[in-house]
Design a protein that fits this description.
Elements: H1 2-7, H2 12-19, E1 32-36, E2 41-45, H3 49-67, H4 77-95, H5 102-125, H6 131-142, H7 150-170, H8 174-186, H9 195-208, H10 213-230, H11 236-251, H12 256-264, H13 270-283, H14 289-300, H15 308-322, H16 328-347, E3 371-377, H17 381-396, E4 401-407, H18 413-418, E5 427-428, H19 431-440, E6 448-453, E7 458-461, H20 467-487, H21 489-492
């Protein structure tokens, strides 16, 4: 689920926090209410802000766990239910307090919705009969689908859809599909105005599609229904989610987000999935550009293990398929990407000039190692995380190569200050030098790593950081073997 949700460009935590994000959290529950009892006037305090926030945070964490389909396992899910039912008792006590403001009442109702949702989704995920609990949640939400508070109203409508969706995903049948379809078409306001809600429902269908042939057939029915409904939204972002869902219906079996890394590390399933994805492209040439690009990037990871012939065969098939793309602009873009990919593959074994200057101080890059690793990156979080990983690898061991980082765009003063955290053993190339690197070796995606030897020859392309030591060891072993062969009597005869 997590992966599929990231695929839609949305954070899972944001999905659930945004469902019932509350206005003015810092302004709640500052009132002390005075009430009479039969004996004397006394002070009665409304629920404290801290108490409500603690309850809310705990419920949010449980919701994230359940709806990301990482439910409590058999050993502790009953404890989860007991804990949440305890919250219900606390909330009912809070509601009985006199002097609650309307804002406080709405806040408690919002937490009630989430709380009851945790109970139901936990039980559904663990295949426990929960008709009574589901009926209670449905009844509670049904009574508030026209609430004056927009967030409460949307949350109630969403949960009247989400619970049948989860139940459909866990136990697909014509009956559960009908319940999901009915809820989806009855309460469109629960997701057509909020991309996070739409993505959550789609994610449930995506997770369902990975549960075997029977579940996949029902999931495809869910895909069709969701795509049809999302097309009715006025938001382009939700239309995009619908398109992504359609793409997943066509390519979900091949796990494209992980295909590249599986090819890199020679996972037995990777080649089969690569062939399957190619067949799907032939069947669906109107596939979105981003899916084509994902596949192009994936098989380029074969270069990291010197599978150049396999990379070439994949490139040839992709080029032939791109020629059949009906849109001329899309075809042109894809073939430009493929042209640059061919250039990168054909550059292996050719010279690469690493000379230049460093960022900030403009000093000459000192090539004092037997190998150099050129680390192409942009300023994205992915590149920065990889740069931090490179720094950690260098701190943990004595490396036998010179790491040089080349940024796609010029570094600002703030960027250079941020890079002070990078170990001094990592060289940051100046913009002029980085530009020269990019012109010599055209990059379409980041991060990207080249390994170059002392003579300036490209030894390997698109390596992972973890592959560098192994590749260097293999090169040195081959050099020693060649030297022994050259010195042997047989070689001299």
């Amino acid at each position: 689920m997590e992966r599929a949700t990231v695929g839609f460009g949305l954070s899972p935590l944001r999905v659930f926090l945004s469902l019932l994000s509350l206005v003015g959290l810092g302004c709640l529950i500052y009132f002390v209410v005075f009430a009479d009892d039969s004996q004397e006037n006394r002070v009665v305090k409304a629920p404290s802000e801290k108490k409500l926030q603690q309850t809310e945070l705990t419920v949010d964490q449980r919701l994230e766990q359940i709806l990301r389909f990482k439910p409590a396992n058999d050993a502790n899910f009953l404890g989860t239910i007991d804990e949440v039912l305890g919250f219900e008792s606390e909330l009912e006590t809070m509601e009985s307090k006199p002097g609650l403001t309307e804002q406080q009442k709405v806040k408690i109702e919002q937490i009630h919705v989430r709380n009851q949702s945790v109970v139901v989704t936990t039980m559904v995920s663990n295949k426990i009969d929960c008709e009574a609990e589901k009926a209670k949640l449905f009844r509670y939400c049904s009574q508030r689908i026209d609430a004056e508070d927009d967030q409460l109203k949307e949350a109630c409508r969403f949960w009247l859809i989400a619970v049948p969706a989860i139940e459909f995903a866990e136990a697909p049948s014509e009956q559960t599909h009908h319940a999901f379809a009915t809820a989806l078409t009855t309460y469109p306001d629960g997701y057509l105005k909020t991309p996070e809600n739409a993505a959550t429902l789609c994610g449930i269908m995506v997770r369902m599609s990975k549960g075997g042939p029977v579940k996949k057939q029902f999931a495809l029915k869910g895909f069709d229904l969701m795509t049809e409904q999302l097309a009715k939204s006025e938001l382009e972002s939700i239309h995009g989610i619908g398109n992504s869902l359609r793409e997943f219906a066509n390519f979900g079996d091949y796990d494209l987000p992980t295909l590249g890394e599986r090819l890199r590390w020679s996972d037995p399933s990777a080649q089969k999935d690569l062939a399957g994805a190619f067949d799907a492209l032939v069947k669906f040439p109107e596939t979105e550009t981003k899916t084509w690009v994902t596949l192009i990037r994936a098989y380029e990871n074969l270069l990291s293990t010197d599978k150049i012939e396999e990379t070439g065969a994949a490139w040839k098939r992709m080029w032939d398929m791109s020629s059949a793309v009906p849109t001329s602009e899309k075809k042109k873009l894809l073939q430009q990407i493929l042209d640059r990919q061919r250039t990168r593959a054909m550059s292996i074994g050719t010279p690469f000039d690493i000379s230049g200057t460093t960022a900030g101080d403009g000093k000459e890059i000192v090539d004092n190692k037997e190998f150099s690793a050129i680390f192409f990156c942009d300023k994205s979080r992915t590149s920065m995380n990889s740069l931090a990983k490179l720094g950690a690898a260098i701190k943990e061991q004595q490396i036998g190569y010179l790491p040089i980082v080349a940024f796609e765009k010029d570094l600002t003063k703030e960027d250079i200050e941020t890079l002070h955290m990078v170990p001094e053993s990592i060289t940051i190339a100046s913009h002029e030098t980085a530009k020269k690197y990019f012109e010599a070796f055209p990059i379409d995606f980041f991060p990207y790593l080249l390994l170059v030897d002392k003579q300036g020859k490209i030894l390997a392309a698109n390596l992972a950081i973890e592959q560098i030591p192994t590749r260097i060891a293999a090169v040195k072993s081959a050099q020693r073997r060649a030297a022994r062969d050259a010195a042997s009597p047989a070689a001299s005869q």
